[in-house]
Amino acid sequence: MNRQRMNYAVVRQLILKDWYLNRGVILGSIPVGLVALAIVLTGKPVAFMLCVILLCMVIVGVGAQLAFVTTINERKEQTLAFVMSLPVSWREYTAAKILANLIIFLIPWLPLTAGALGLLLLPGATHGLVPFTAIMALEMLITTSIIVTAGIITESQAWTTAGIFLSSLGINLGGYIFAHLPGISNYMWGTRVYWSPTALIVLICELLTVPLLLGATFFVQSRKTDFL
Amino acid sequence: MNDLCIRMEGVSKRYPHFLLDSICLELREGEVLGFIGANGAGKSTTIRILMGLVRQDTGSVQVLGHPMPAEQTAAKLDIGFVSEDLRLYGAPTLAWHMKFVASMYPRWDQAYADKLLQRFDLKPQQKIKGLSHGQRVKAALLLALARQPRLLILDEPTTGLDPVARREVLGELMSVLTDEGRTIFFSSHNTLEVEQISDHIAFIDRGRLIAHDEKESLLERWRRVRLVVPPSTALPLLPGIVEVAGTERLPVLTTSQFDPDVVSLCQNRGVTVQAVDSMTLEEIFVANVQSRRELQPA
After folding, report:
1. What average pLDDT does range B240-259 have in this prediction?
2. pTM to 2 decimals?
3. Best residue of A13, A86, A91 to probe chain B, by most B CBs closer than 10 Å
4. Structure confidence at residue B283 as a pLDDT band (50, 70, 90)
């Protein structure tokens, strides 16, 4: 089949459109996440757990909301026909969806992850938790990628909800497993940051999983023949 | 002059419970095609194939010289599309939509868009979710027209509109027709609307194209002939009879190939032609569909 070249200007416009439609939720999530981080500064024992729970809720919630609004709702509310009436190919549409979800998700994820790591590097904090926190932050990026993949490929509310459910379970399960890997658990509560080979391998695997998932999504979508 | 805007050749698409069967259709530049079919006849599937949103299983599709769906992006630069099931984003304003669409169309005509805003009584700062159904259709039409498309594809755009909104939408379409370069593919099951604006007509039923002709020719060829047949006189064999109704003595024939000579032919056989009635597009469509269905039951 004769495939036209990707029009990056169109992809950019579609990403900007999704940013415009979701900017309220995304920008609103950052102060909530910062409040969660600030709770740690109170120094109370329960504060750390509360911060972790709140941060997870905010980050996973943002990813799920984004995937729903940009993929499922677009079909459900029949705005997909409007977008596809524009000079947009399905490849450009899919590329825009993947990139929009990733880029927009990174807007709260980056400052909140940086904030969490920064707090752990404060004098008196448990510096050894830095690798584990980085691993968990990347796991949330994977969670969002799974939800985006489910949303884009299945275009089904039920499957995307299942994706949210399973990937949320995966965060807990992954957290438990990683926290019990000797290469991580032995240094977790130390006073210095130690990037053990185990921690580095997990991080690299997580980093590779994200483009793999999103690349597979693009590949599967490129082979579809019917879009409406 | 009169280049082909749309060319579909042997286009088929199979779904589990529906088959779009070997559609062959041509639409020349400047023509307005009324595409009529009942619900579920295959109108929307045909339009989705034309827009490159559904890939045909077999056959070839060319829109404005571009093979579809391979070159759908280039084709859609010159297409304005409004569909009954097309919705704009609820939260943003019409002005945002105009800016968004304009960013993708180099030929976007802001002056024309402003003119349409006035004509349709739309306010650019109004959010789409605050608009009535009629206003939303007009907003979608504005976004399609201001991009200066060579081809307008309209899929039941007036469905659900009140009479005033429908008149306004049709009025704007009629004014668009003054631009002879503009080609329109107008799908509807409202035959009255189609009759108003089209110069060519195509009927689709159960996934098959059952008629495709110039409107005037179609309206000229179809007639209802009321006869008085004396006892012991046989009904003459007339060309193109698709339906015989009435009684044996007072039959009403519907023909798709009416010829004025039929009157003298009947009189020569001793049959009196009581009346020759012209038919509306709706009557022609229904008679055509029913006769085809009788010949080819589902």
Report:
1. 88
2. 0.87
3. A86
4. very high
Instruction: With both helix axes pointing from N to C terminus, report the angle between B163-176 and B133-145 in degrees, rounded to the nearest 10.
Output: 10
With both helix axes pointing from N to C terminus, report the angle between B133-145 and B94-102 in degrees, rounded to the nearest 10: 20
How far apart are alpha carbons B275 and B258 in whole angstroms? Answer: 13
**Letter for the amino acid at B97?**
H
In total, the C-beta contacts within 8 angstroms joining chain A to chain B are 74
Tell me the C-alpha distance between A59 and A71, whole Å.
Answer: 18
Which amino acid would we find at residue A215? G
Using a CB-CB cut-off of 8 Å, the residues of chain A touching B91 are 21
What's the burial of A178, exposed, middle or buried (CB within 10 Å: 0-12/13-18/19+)?
buried
ipTM for the whole complex: 0.86
Measured between CB atoms, which of A1, A17, A82 is closest to B87? A82
pLDDT tens sequence across A17-67 = 999 999 999 999 999 988 888 887 777 768 877 888 888 888 888 988 898
Question: Lowest-pLDDT range, B30-34, B36-40, B225-229, B292-296?
Answer: B292-296
Give tens-digit pLDDT for A77-113.
Answer: 889 999 999 999 888 999 999 999 999 999 999 999 9
> Residue A4: which of B73, B88, B89 has the nearest Cβ?
B73
Q: In what order do the strands lie in the sheet with B18-28?
A: B18-28, B4-15, B58-63, B66-68
Inform me whether the C-beta atom of residue B148 falls under 8 Å from chain A C-beta atoms.
no
Q: Does B101 touch chain A (CB under 8 A)?
A: yes
What part of A 206-225 touches B (C-beta under 8 Å)?
225
For chain B, which domains are there?
Answer: 4-217 (3.40.50.300), 223-278 (no CATH)
